[in-house]
Amino acid sequence: MQRSVSCRLTATVTTPTELVLGVAVAAGAATTETLSVTLDGVAVGVREVAAEHGTRLHVAPGVGPGSLSVRYDAHVVGGTPPATMTDLDRLRYLRPSRYCESDRLASFARFEFRELTGKELVDAVSSWVGMRVAYVEGSSRPIDGAVSTLLAREGVCRDFAHLVIAMLRACDMPARLVSVYAPGLDPMDFHAVAEACVDDEWIVVDPTLLAPRSTLLRIATGRDAADTAFLSSTGDSLALDDLTVSAITDDVLPIDDLTRSVRLS
Q: How confident is the model at residue 234 (pLDDT cuts 50, 70, 90)?
C-alpha cells in the first residue's frame, strides 16, 4: 500500500521556547519525506530524537517570539515492521498512566468484562466504548482522561482510545496509545487509536470506526496522549493558529472487516 501524508501548522510564539514536534511517520517505513520549520520566514534548525517503538521527535530549542510555520510531507510505500512485545512493554503498558486511570476503573471493568480474555476481550471493550460514547468534536479538554470520558459519555478519538486502554489494562491486558495518519478519516486530522497485546502481538483497536484500520500509518506510540502529542512547548508560550492534515492512499479504501485482527503499520 502506498500512502501520502502531510501536515501544515502555524502558531504564534510569544516567548522563546523549546518546540517538540511529533508529526513524522515512525522509523522503519520506506519513505521520502521533507520537514520544514520556519519562524517569520527564516529556517529554524531542528534535531531528530529517536524514541521507543520507532517514534521520531523533532526538537527546536530557543524558538521565538514570532510566527511559526511547520510543513511535513511524506510518501510511504509499505509500512513499519510488525511491533513485538517485550518484557518492558508488558510491565509499562499494564500500569495506570496520566490519561488512562486503569486503577480507578478496575472494579467496573473487571465486572463488566468478566471471564473474557484475548481477542474476545478486545472486541467486547471496543464495542462497549463505541456504543456508549458519542463522538463530539470539541467536547473534551486536554486534561480529560478515561474516567472523565466514561462519566461524560462523549469525546474525540483520543478519549475513545484512552477509555479502551484503561479498560483493557484493568482487565490485565497490555494496551497503549498510537497517533496515526488515517486515510479515509472524516473530518481529516491527526487520529488516535489503541493497540492491545493479544498472544504477544500488538493489534490495533479503534472504537470510533472512522477510518479503515489497515490504512493507518504510525506516528508516535506511548502510554497515552502525554507521549504522543503532535506539538508541545515549554511554558505558556505558544498558541496554535491553524492545523491542516492530509492522508491519502493510492489504492481504493478497503472495507474494514471488524472480525479480523489488524496490525498497525
A: confident
Which pTM value belongs to this model? 0.95
Task: Give strand pairing partners of 10.
Answer: 69, 242
167 domain-assigned: yes
- Residue whose cell numbers read 479502551: 164
Q: Does residue 28 sit in the same domain as residue 128? A: no
Residues 6+ apart with CB under 8 A from 240: 9, 10, 11, 231
- Same domain for 215 and 240: no
Kindly report the number of other CB atoms within 10 A of residue 80's CB atom: 20
Q: Are 10 and 219 in contact (CB under 8 A)?
A: no
Let me know: does 162 contact 207? Beta carbons within 8 Å: no
Give the pLDDT confidence of 39-72 residue by residue, as tens digits.
999 999 999 999 999 999 999 999 999 999 999 9
Burial of 181 (0-12, 13-18, 19+ CB in 10 A): buried
Q: Evaluate whether 168 touches 96 at the Cβ level (below 8 Å).
A: no
242 in the same domain as 160? no
CA angle 124, 128, 130 (to 5 degrees): 115
pLDDT of residue 107: 97
Q: How many CA atoms lie within 13 A of 49 on its CB side?
A: 11
**Residue for cell digits 510488525?**
82
Residue partners of 34: CB distance under 8 A and separation at least 6: 71, 72, 73, 74
**Structural domain containing residue 55:** 2-79+231-248
In a 3-state reduction of DSSP, which class is residue 178? strand
Classify residue 261 by burial, with Cβ atoms within 10 Å: 0-12, 13-18, 19+: middle
Helices (H) and strands (E) in the chain, counts: 5, 15
